[in-house]
Design a protein that fits this description.
Strand content: 15-25%
Shape: rod-shaped
Helix content: 25-40%
Strand order of the largest sheet: 7-8-6-9
Structural class: alpha+beta
Number of strands: 11
Number of helices: 8
Order of helices and strands: EEHEEHHEHEHEEEHHEEH
Distance between the termini: 53 Å
């Protein structure tokens, strides 16, 4: 299968040879064609054969090279130049078997060249400008977030959510020696750590714990206007049924840091 195209943005089929057409006037037996590093990287990115064809329209002549076969050495790749011989590289009726063999020789699962496009990437990252200086740790008999949360809401329905339960202990930005926390943990065994011991830790477990704490802090900061989907982690506006509709601009005014 042969699919000609102009330029470097093909709509490539699953299998085939992809010629790049270039106009060229040459009167010597040999001539060269230069490419950029970006073009070379792009053409060699897939496993489907890429065929470079240079044409002399005034003489009805064309010459061809296989990009993968020609740039098979570091020296040629470094030169970024294709040398054509007008006698041996002519594209004629006699080139058919060589072209067919190139296409038929592709292995199953061939990866064609993907069309290149420019896209705008919009990030939804939030910069952590500052955190509380300390983290509080204390053992608790409530072994999971769900169980601890139920016990906490029984004491204070509006209690903050900047905490997690891990390995039988509560980790929080809040001072656990205060109400209502002290009623749910072993205050006598409480320890206070500098937040950097989690924020700058190389331990994957501590990294995950700190990320979860920050996510819970964000959820606490934007509620009740926003809710967080547990499966996707996406924040969304809650249902406005029976409530005054909240405009996006109003939320942005309330939380300029977001």
């Amino acid at each position: 299968m042969v699919q000609p195209y102009l330029g470097s943005n093909p709509s490539a089929p699953a299998r085939g040879i992809f010629p790049l057409l270039r106009h060229h006037r040459a009167y010597r037996e040999t001539f060269s064609w230069s490419c950029t590093q970006d073009e070379l990287d792009y053409w060699r990115n897939g496993t489907a054969p890429v065929l470079l064809i240079v044409v002399e329209p005034d003489h009805d002549r064309a010459y061809w090279k296989s990009i993968q076969a020609y740039f098979d050495t570091p020296e040629r790749r470094a030169s970024k130049k294709v040398i054509f011989n007008k006698n041996t590289d002519a594209l004629t009726k006699g080139s058919g078997p060589a072209l067919a063999a190139m296409a038929e020789g592709q292995a199953h699962g061939t990866i064609p060249l993907a069309g290149r496009r420019q896209e705008t990437l919009t990030l939804n990252f939030l910069k952590v400008a500052r955190t509380a200086p300390s983290l509080y740790w204390a053992p608790t008999e409530y072994g999971t977030n769900k169980i601890f949360g139920g016990a906490l809401r029984a004491l204070d329905p509006n209690a903050a959510a900047e905490w997690i339960v891990r390995s039988g202990a509560l980790l929080s930005f809040h001072d656990l020696d205060r109400e209502p926390w002290r009623n749910l943990v072993d205050v006598g065994a409480m320890e206070v750590f500098d937040v950097s011991e989690w924020a700058d830790s190389e331990d994957p477990d501590r990294q995950r714990q700190f990320v979860e704490l920050l996510n819970r802090c964000l959820s606490e900061m934007v509620r009740p206007e926003f809710r967080r989907d547990r499966e996707t982690g996406v924040y969304y506006f809650g249902s406005t049924k029976g409530k005054t509709r909240t405009a996006v601009a109003e939320v942005a005014d309330m939380y300029p840091a977001c």
